[in-house]
Specification:
The strands form three sheets. Strands 4, 6, 7, 8, 9 and 10 form a six-stranded mixed sheet that branches. The chain is of the alpha+beta class. It has a single domain, classed as Muramoyl-pentapeptide Carboxypeptidase, domain 2, CATH 3.30.1380.10. Strand 9 and strand 10 form a beta hairpin.
Length: 370
């Protein structure tokens, strides 16, 4: 056992998240019972969850923020099934004081899934030119599931039933600041302009001051060190871990502990990936007979939410570029838009670049260099 502040977390079982034949789990779908809903900013149900849309390149820590790495079809908003979001909120509450979930990815379109899969497979082919296609595909699918348009065999993220998460920690002063902002956001009568301004301040507190726990690799590291039980295997083999490795091991135990307590199923090859038992992979890991969430697309309300987020982001980036000129240009605009611009400007002046992240290491998903 390992004690992490106020919680006691067991060692991760060596076979945790091992799964085979999950694509053969039958589906009994009813999307109306478990809809796709947004996380993070402007979400009615999960506004308190911190999101950083890695594949969109939302923040500066994302390698996909560079134009040459842009992924067509990626979304600014993270969406997930309602059951997934409810479990994430439970997991958030299980964390020790000052610790928070950071969600990097959830629902993923077929287009993004295909881009990630093909990129990893090509890089693997370049690294091992003699590897046969069957082995290439098998190794690739440890880290990026095969994109599928077969409604009976969707990739996990395409169902909205999988999430990629890490844990970040704030010092006491900035934790108090965060809690104060959250308390303001609970006001159901808060106008949209004020809400956007408060959310920008909340994001800035996390982006500038929340440090990601050391898990031994960056997020999306595409090698064996990312395996959930990597450090547990070393311990089982009688190896004495360094202090840094033991820290990473303990942090993985913490994440594994709170996510499984919240009802998620782990995945053996990635410490950050967790599945809902309603998904095929999650059902197979949990030993269930069938899954209830299959491939899904965005509905009209999801699309409207994404468009609103994009418009606010574009406005914020434009105002940041304009600087003091933005104040003069605000005059004469419609009252609603003026109020929004004033709140965004005030937030930018207080907190700076809305894309800047001080920490949160992440990599392009690819085979590791030797």
């Amino acid at each position: 056992m390992v004690t992490v502040e106020n919680g006691i977390y067991p060692a991760i079982p060596l076979d945790a998240g091992q799964v085979q034949g999950w694509k053969d789990i039958p589906l009994r779908e009813d999307d109306s019972l478990d809809p796709l809903i947004p996380l993070g900013p402007l979400s009615q149900e999960a506004e308190i969850l911190m999101t950083s849309s890695l594949y969109f390149g939302e923040h500066s820590n994302s390698p996909y923020a560079e134009n040459r790495n842009k992924l067509e079809g990626s979304l600014l908003t993270l969406f997930a099934r309602q059951s997934v979001i409810h479990r994430l909120l439970v997991a958030e509450q299980l964390l020790p004081a000052g610790h928070h979930l950071l969600v990097f990815d959830a629902y993923r379109s077929y287009q993004v899934q295909k881009s990630l899969h093909d990129f990893y497979k090509q890089k693997l082919r370049e690294k091992y030119p003699g590897m046969d296609n069957e082995t290439l595909e098998s190794e690739t699918q440890k880290y990026v599931s095969l994109p599928s348009m077969d409604p009976t065999r969707p990739s996990p993220h395409n169902t909205g039933g999988s999430v990629d998460v890490a844990i970040v920690k704030l010092d006491q002063a900035h934790e108090e600041e965060l809690l104060q902002i959250r308390s303001h956001l609970t006001d159901v009568h808060l106008i949209i302009a004020k809400r956007v301004g408060m959310e920008m301040r909340l994001s800035a507190t996390m982006r500038r001051h929340a440090k990601m726990l050391d898990f031994g690799t960056a997020f999306d590291h595409g090698g064996e060190k990312s395996a959930l039980a990597y450090y547990e295997s070393k311990i089982a083999a009688g190896e004495i871990l360094t202090d840094n490795d033991m820290l990473a091991c303990n942090n993985r135990r913490l994440l594994f502990g709170i996510m499984t307590q919240a009802g998620f199923q782990p995945y053996f090859a990635e410490w950050w990936h967790f599945n809902a038992p309603e998904s095929q992979m999650g059902a197979a890991t949990a030993g269930l007979d069938y899954a209830t969430v299959g491939a899904v697309g965005l509905d009209e309300s999801n699309i409207a939410h994404e468009n609103t987020r994009l418009k606010i982001r574009q406005e914020a980036l434009k105002l940041q570029r304009e600087g003091d000129l933005a104040v003069a240009r605000t005059a004469g605009l419609a009252i609603v838009r003026t109020a929004l611009r004033v709140e965004i400007l005030a937030a930018i002046r207080e907190t700076g670049d809305p894309k800047l992240v001080e920490d949160w290491p992440a990599e392009i998903i690819a085979p590791p260099e030797e």
